[in-house]
Q: What sequence folds into this?
């Protein structure tokens, strides 16, 4: 799994009002879309779907490319039936990863509309390690996790992130209520933090792309 995020220099993924378009420039965003072409699946949390309504397709400027399988982390199946990720014309299927706490009626509606609703575990949250195992059984062995903060936090806590692709824009957003890219409890001390190895830094227009492989301390 590769965790991807676009952040300001002070580590914000949106303003205090939730606006995030656009933090990075066109070159960085184009490279981010190209990443989608390289992985079997793209994964986001339901918060990202509700706030941004993304299509989660590749949309390469020169055409072509392959849309990844779209995986939505949605414990209680709260995704609207008219969400773009469900209605966007694409050959790639959408999988809604839910728990046993999801409404059976909503699951039936999703399946009636041709969407796979995958019950991963009892709950209350989707068990990401178990989800990755189930995806691997379907031949999905590489996943690009695009957030949001809760999804990233859960993935880092479960220690299933192998690599990060962090796009950093030379902007200061500020604000204590402006969200960062990784939620959850986090590390107790800097000594417990996961660290990056084999780090590379690339320039994409005015933005930087930091990539590296995760080493977990505990």
A:
């Amino acid at each position: 799994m590769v965790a991807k995020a676009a952040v300001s220099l002070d580590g914000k993924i949106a303003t205090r009002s939730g606006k995030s378009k656009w933090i990075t420039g066109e070159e960085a965003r184009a490279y981010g879309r190209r990443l989608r072409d390289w992985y079997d699946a793209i994964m986001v949390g339901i918060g990202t779907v509700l706030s941004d309504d993304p299509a989660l397709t590749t949309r390469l400027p020169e055409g072509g490319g392959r849309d990844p399988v779209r995986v939505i982390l949605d414990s209680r199946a709260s995704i609207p039936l008219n969400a773009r990720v469900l209605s966007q014309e694409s050959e790639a299927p959408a999988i809604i990863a839910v728990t046993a706490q999801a409404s059976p009626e909503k699951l039936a509606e999703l399946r009636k509309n041709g969407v796979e609703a995958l019950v991963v575990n009892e709950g209350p949250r989707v068990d990401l390690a178990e989800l990755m195992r189930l995806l691997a059984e379907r031949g999905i062995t590489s996943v690009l996790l695009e957030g949001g903060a809760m999804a990233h936090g859960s993935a880092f806590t479960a220690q299933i992130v192998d690599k990060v692709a962090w796009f950093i824009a030379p902007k200061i957003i500020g604000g204590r209520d402006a969200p960062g890219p990784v939620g959850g409890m986090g590390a107790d001390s800097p000594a417990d933090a996961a660290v990056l190895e084999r780090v590379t830094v690339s320039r994409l227009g005015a933005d930087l792309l930091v990539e590296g492989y995760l080493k977990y301390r505990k």
